[in-house]
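[job 4471] stage=fold_predict status=RUNNING
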Amino acid sequence: MTMKRILATAPMMAWTDKHCRFLHRQYSPSALLFTEMITTGALLYGKQYHLLDFNPCEHPVAVQLGGNDPTALAECAAMAEAEGYDEVNINVGCPSDRVQKGTFGACLMQQPELVADCVRAMQAACSIPVSVKCRTGIVLKNHPNEYHDLAFLERFVDTLVDAGCSRLYLHARVAVLGGLSPAQNRDIPPLTPEKGEAIKLRNPNLELIMNGGISDVPQAMRYLEWADGVMIGRAAYHQPRFLSALEAEMFNPKFSIDEAGIVATYRRYMSTQLEAGVKLNALTKHLLHSFNGRPGARRFRQILSDAKRLKSNDVSMVDEAMAALTPMNPTDGALQRAG
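[job 4471] inference complete, writing structure tokens
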């Protein structure tokens, strides 16, 4: 199949930092890796430029920005391009109370024209693709039925497309603003991928990447019968071999991994980061889900969670954790096509 397909990892606060992205790159050479959401205020007023740091091996890599001011977002988009990012994305999907108080994230879906203004301003300020990530709609206490039917989503997307947005990441759930926590918003609202299919039918030239609850390869491939790509969140973090299975299914049938080799590569990376002053626990936390389901994985996690050794930056604990794993049979390394 010659159709361009997109495999992306979802932006996840406190998870998809540069260390996580380095590790995920080892599991999937082709995935588009997303940063955590970075607010425009953190860059423009907090001067937290380190948030834009990434390793060259992460390409292709996209930065997600949180904000609602077209001028500020444009300035940050230009910064992202200068840093070498391949794409800049606007968060119009986060349901957290903190984000709502900043009047960005999912609550921006109430203001499609403002989101469109942000897209235009960012496109004028940079030459890399500007994309949007949103929900299928939002549920507000005072307006429970106003912003979440298909007609609303169609109007919202039409406004973005008219502004020149050519790529949309759609989390196939509404966001309930007020009443549900961010964690509950990832599970309780039902998935409605049929809305995504309707959007793609209405806008065939819009690159539509589906997100939300994708946890096995057959499910992902069903989306790819009509969508342009899939974005994987928690499943990629908790079962990184899933990324490798999708790599093989979507891009290279001969692709395989040596997970012990991946950890060895990450171990070398950890040494360079420790020398740069990074704390060990910021590095080991992303390894905890490697080898999930394999004999010895529980002991592997226990060793890597030893608070005393983490505090002393004792990187030899990684070697000890690896030694705790039961040796694999040659056939055990095959990628699990079901994730």
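[job 4471] summary: The first strand starts at residue 6 and ends at 9.
[job 4471] exit 0
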